[in-house]
Design goal:
Length: about 575
Amino acid sequence: MLKNLDKMNELLIKLAENGINIGPESFKKIKTLKNPLEFVSTLIIKIKSQFKSKELVVIKDEIINSYLEEFKNSASENTAETIAKKEINKTEEINKNKETDENKEINKNKDENKELNEEINKPNRNQDGVEGKFNFEILIDTSKKSYTKGELVDFVSLFKSRFEKLSKILKKRSQLKVVKKISEIHAQDKQNDFSTIGMIKEIKKTKNGHIFMELEDETGVLNVLISKDDAELIKFSEKLVKDEVVGVLGKIGKNSKKDPKNGSKKESNKSNSLSIASEIIQPGVTRIDKKKMDFSVCFCSDIHIGSNTFVEESFVKFIDWINGDFENEEFKAIGMDIKYLIISGDIVDGIGIYPNQDKELKIKDITKQYDKAAELLSKIRTGVKIIIGPGNHDASRVAEPQPAVPKEYAKSLYELKNVEFVSNPALISLEGIKVLMYHGRGIDDMALGVKGMSMEENDKIMKELMNKRHLAPLYGERTPLAAELEDHLVIDDLPDIFHTGHVHINSYKNYNGIHMINSGTFQTQTEFQKTHNINPTVAVVPILHRGKFIEINFLSSQKKNRK
């Protein structure tokens, strides 16, 4: 019985995805056919040859009956493929002669369907419960988990939470199964080996070419030296930043006669013991098993609706593509396979985000910007689930983690039945595939503060954030962090997909089985970007097409494959 039910659901979904609605009596008759799926495929071709609208079309029982009679008569000598070919030829004939019997029947019902056709322009019709086919789940959303008062004690709790979470991950590494507290290291005999876990309080290069690091835990501070003679460890350490949590293996040396920070003489005591690091371990990423994807996902961010540099024509072309209206047949097939659209922040351009922004705004009201976004997204077929997170241009608080965009500003978007709002960051599940959504402000700090990192190669930064298992490890830099009781930016659960935006530059890397994607923008270069030498990737949309990464350029309609 469950098998038959699945087949019936398949018929309904196939019709709904193609914008066709039929009555219960017609559906009962279709179910009795020997090959109902074949009839539905033929019906779709017939209806689409008559109705050019991409939206929902209601077909009356009388028309279905005539198609059923025709199908039964021709079933013995025709396949769905030959019927389709005949219908294409018939369509050409119909365009020349509008007086065929079928066309008369359909024209007869056009007036009766007038109200329905007007309904097409309203946002997001419910297509016979199509939403039910989504296996979508929000795993982590911090929107209702903010308990901070912004007091000093909250910052202490934040860093304590970070240390505890990342220590737990680090202790799973074989080299750190047994570790000592820093106070225990100071108490042990000199020149003994040690292993410990700590947060980097300070790190800098000495005038002699060594790297000096202060490591702390809840019991004390340990001075750690990375020798310039260990070239591999020096290179690795250049990626380390303040406030990240690492494991350190090494040996306690003799008490230094000089303060390693400034070279001044200092009396020997246990708390100033200088350790020599032999290995530094980040939480890191274990290999993720590849999961089968029998659906496709589209990734967007930084659409910037409301800006006069928003490329609306390309965005509309993108929407048409999702709806199956595209000149290239290969692209069209991919578009119709899209089941989820992820938007990781900055769907609108916002108000007062940077100096003189008002001079570059086409829509100067934040609510009207979201209304325009709703107008555009409402045109996307309801067979696509749209998940929206906030960015620094959105009407959410600036400090991370950001709650979802408030309904008071984006009411028109909240009214769309296939739209879900989540926080920044958020962890969601699409058919069992875990997606970590993060707008990406933490990328700024890494690009500016770490040797070898840049906005242009943001995939390298995303890889490093995954290794640190934190989305914005540097505190007090460009990324504002809320003084939460819990650090929600720690990457506890490894995702299958890591999606960011913010920098307006596309990138892709598969790192240990994780698809890492940055999705560029739908905004041409702004004056602000010109002054910072940022050359955006405009209207080039990343797609995971059943597990394979591709990009489609909606400025030039070109597809690019990446491995």
